[in-house]
Amino acid sequence: MKLSELKHGGLKKWVEEAVALMTPDAVEVCDGTSAEYDRMIALMKDAGLATELNQKKLPGCFLFRSDPSDVARVEARTYIASKSKDDAGPTNNWIDPAELKKTMRGLYGACMKGRTMFVIPYSMGPIGSEIAKIGVEITDSPYVVANMHIMARVGTKVLDVLGADGFFVPCYHSIGKPLAAGEKDNGVWPCAPLDKKYISHFPETREIWSYGSGYGGNALLGKKCLALRIASVLARDEGWLAEHMLILKITNPQGAVKYITGAFPSACGKTNLAMLIPTLPGWKVETVGDDIAWMKFGADGRLYAINPEAGFFGVAPGTNNESNHNAMESIKKNTIYTNVALTADKDVWWEGIGYDAPGSLTDWKGKPWTQDKANKNQEPAAHPNSRFTAPAKQCPAIAKEWEDPKGVPISAFLFGGRRPKTIPLVNQAKSWIHGVFMGSIVGSEVTAAALDVQAGTIRRDPFAMLPFCGYHMGDYFKHWIKIGKGHDEAKLPKIFFVNWFRKDDAGKFIWPGYGENSRVLAWIFDRCDGKGGAVETPIGTLPTPDAIIPPAGVGEQDMKELLKVDIAGWKAEIKDVRDNHYPKFGDKLPKELYVELDSIEKRLNA
Ligand code: GTP
Ligand code: SPV
Ligand code: MN
Q: What is the distance between the terminal CA atoms of the chain, rounded to a whole angstrom?
């Protein structure tokens, strides 16, 4: 579609301004058809950036290798440019919006020379749903266009809903690598150097400007930028919740259904939990969403969640038929693989795929790689943050209501992270405010999902939103408290803290995780109905020793360890929150949370 055919005056003008600034060789408005998707892939093949995979084994699947500097979100280059620095808060990077726009306009100047500008109208949420939001991303990356086709609803049908004057979030994206006359990418992933990358958000004007990266959350602007950073601001203003949460449907052996959401930091198990196959007989889990939940109150006073996305951008390493069969089934066709390893017969491979590397591979950097199991220090063949992009509808466990524009009523919120010690397998909050306290102190061992934070250390990641909250985190806590005060607590989701990642002194996981997590989900399900063996402790409501049937290989002693209240560990935890975590938020830290902190401390000392 041509620019001149756009019916929305504001959109047309905004694109024309971008064209004048970025001077692409051509402009195309995306229609969202499969022919368009195929054309994007063909363009990338021509540029030497897409490798066609074995079409017998993996029909419609392609592999991309990004630049080694462009393999994950870059938190140090991500900005919340609110007018006042205080509105961005202590956990976000801030630059004055006028100054940032000036810098970025400089970078955007002629940045699309030699390339085509693609205009992608997209809907986060089912098209036309009252909860859905429309964005328009302009980009010079066919890789981004193809990924957006999978991750969001894109094209002409979105323009139809937008009409002549509808609201959209304008999103600029450029990889920041113009081409000189006759120059081609020639197999080199185009992007800008780290100090030129900017992932910028202007919350007051609801704008997103991204420059210099082609990877994941930096470039697919509907995902973290719109659906979390901008949406969290809209949610604060309008009284709803935009959260980094999976959404699952769970059915018990009697056929009763509940919906549960869960916030775990990046690479801490959301996709896996959303697609879990229960080991507990008679239970069933189905997927509604694996990364983001938008939740609004229904007329009945309950919270209803939609998944704003249309696909999965999932972590490849560790995904196998045992750990996540449904993901493996979802990624057998029409899938984009990024930074995984390639086998000689053009199949994919990664660490933790469930079998040894078949012969000599090409690693994610494009170099020959042969598995050497004796060498513990061998570099991995697949990047630890290598990912698959696959349509959600391909998931065998996708719930039939996953696109229901009303959303699904939520019974429980889970919070969790990778905590080798102290935090028990599961712990129910005594009240909404206790649950908000739990969310506010989420911590996790750092993973590879972001480029610039050191893997292996524990950092606080409140509500798993640290990199994704578009405003002051202290105000965000306040928003959660306000939600509780403004609604009937009996109808609000019950809140639980889970930890699948306890390790023994040898560093081995005590809990097998994955499908076995269904044992914990079953307890949570029952607790939502006030059932299930439970004991009150200083830190919350824990299962009685017999309430969770241990999986094979987990002994009585292990279960005791997983469910004990580690008084000394918790005292250290509370001290760390009081000395290091809460003070970061200054007077914006709601006093209700200090009250919770004090009362837990008192109970621990009793
Ligand atoms: P993002 O897409 O970055 O938000 O990640 P996510 O939260 O969806 O994490 P995902 O489910 O992709 O899991 C990340 C890694 O954790 C993978 O390597 C998984 O195999 C591993 N993992 C997931 N669930 C479990 C579990 O229950 N136990 C253990 N030990 N590992 C798990
Ligand atoms: C995450 O890091 O939480 C992701 C991947 O889901 S990205 O889309 O890159 O943010
Ligand atoms: Mn995520």
A: 70
CATH of the domain at 355: 2.170.8.10
- pLDDT score of 415: 98
pLDDT tens, position by position, 563-577: 999 999 999 999 999
Whether 168 contacts 11, CB under 8 Å: yes
Shared domain check, 380 and 349 = yes
**How far is C-alpha 47 from the chain's CA centre?**
29
Which class for 418: exposed (0-12), middle (13-18), buried (19 or more C-beta within 10 A)?
buried
Choose among 315, 318, 291, 319: nearest CA to 305. Answer: 291
266 CA distance to ligand 3 middle (Å):
5
Please tell me whether residues 125 and 270 are part of one structural domain: no
The span from the CA of 341 to the CA of 63, in Å, is 9
**CA-based nearest residue to 294, from 214, 218, 222:** 222
Which residues are marked as active site?
268
Structure tokens at 330: 């979802």
CA of 12 to the centre of ligand 1 (A): 41
21: Cβ–Cβ under 8 A, 6 or more apart, which residues?
105, 108, 109
Q: Which residues of the chain have pLDDT under 50?
A: none
Give residue-wise pLDDT tens across range 266-279.
Answer: 999 999 999 999 99
DSSP conformational letter for 150: H
Is there a domain that residue 51 lies in?
no
Q: What is the span of the domain harbouring residue 358?
A: 312-394
Quick check: CB of 14 below 6 Å from ligand 2? no
Q: Write down the pTM of the prediction.
A: 0.97
Indicate whether 172 and 121 sit together in one domain. Answer: yes
